[in-house]
Write a structure and sequence with these properties.
single chain, 34% helix, 5 helices
Length: 197
C-alpha cells in the first residue's frame, strides 16, 4: 500500500462523537511510552501527524486520521497510564472499552508491545480480554532497533510462549522500528489485504 494522503480528522471522548462508521477502521493501542505516535507517523511517512512526547500518557482522546480517503487510522489512549488520579484512569478505561465494544467498523486493533521488556501483566490481561470479547487484533513489537537480534528473538519468543499458555493459535505478529521503518510495509500490506477481503 502506498499512502498518498493522511490527515487528522477529529478527536473524540466517546464513539458517538467519532466520524460516521462508513469506512474500515484500524486502531492502535499500547501502554504508555510504547512508541505509538512514532509508529503511526512512520506508517504514514509523516513526522508530525500524531503528536509525540517524551512524557508518557499524552494521548487522552480517540484520535481519527483519514488515510487515502478510504480508511481510518485511530490513535487510542494507552491502557497503562502515566501518573494520573484513579478517577481519571477509570474515565480512560471506560472510553477505550466503549470504543472497542461499540465501534461497528473496527476491523483490527493493533496492540503495541515494547520488545525490550518481558511479558507484563497489563499487556497479557488486556490481550486476554480482547480474546474473551472476540475483538480482532494483532500484536506489534516496537523499538526493535534497540535490541541485538539475538536478544530480540529471545524476548519475543518468551512472549509467544506465554501467550500460547492461553491461546491455541497466536494472532498476527509484527516487528517494527520507527527509526529504520521496519515493519511498515508488512503492516500496511496487512491492512490493504483486510480492506480488500
Amino acid at each position: 500500500m502506498i499512502i498518498t494522503d493522511a490527515h487528522f480528522v477529529t478527536s473524540s471522548t466517546h464513539p458517538n462523537d467519532c466520524p460516521a462508521p462508513d469506512k474500515p477502521e484500524y486502531a492502535f493501542i499500547g501502554r504508555s511510552n510504547v512508541g505509538k505516535s512514532s509508529l503511526l507517523n512512520m506508517l504514514c511517512n509523516r513526522h508530525k501527524l500524531a503528536k509525540t512526547s517524551g512524557t508518557p500518557g499524552k494521548t487522552r482522546l480517540i484520535n481519527h486520521f483519514l488515510i487515502n480517503n478510504k480508511w481510518y487510522m485511530v490513535d487510542l489512549p494507552g491502557y497503562g497510564y502515566a501518573k494520573l488520579p484513579k478517577a481519571q484512569k477509570g474515565t480512560f478505561t471506560k472510553m477505550i472499552d466503549s470504543y472497542l465494544f461499540g465501534r461497528p467498523n473496527l476491523v483490527n486493533l493493533f496492540v503495541l508491545i515494547d520488545s525490550r521488556h518481558s511479558p507484563m501483566k497489563q499487556d497479557l490481561d488486556f490481550i486476554f480480554n480482547l480474546g474473551t470479547n472476540s475483538i480482532p487484533f494483532s500484536i506489534v513489537f516496537t523499538k526493535t532497533d534497540k535490541l541485538k537480534p539475538g536478544v530480540l528473538e529471545k524476548n519475543t519468543n518468551i512472549y509467544k510462549e506465554r501467550l500460547l499458555e492461553d491461546w491455541e493459535i497466536l494472532p498476527p505478529i509484527f516487528f517494527t522500528s520507527a527509526i529504520n521503518n521496519r515493519g511498515r510495509e508488512e503492516i500496511l500490506n496487512y491492512i490493504e489485504n483486510l480492506n480488500n477481503s
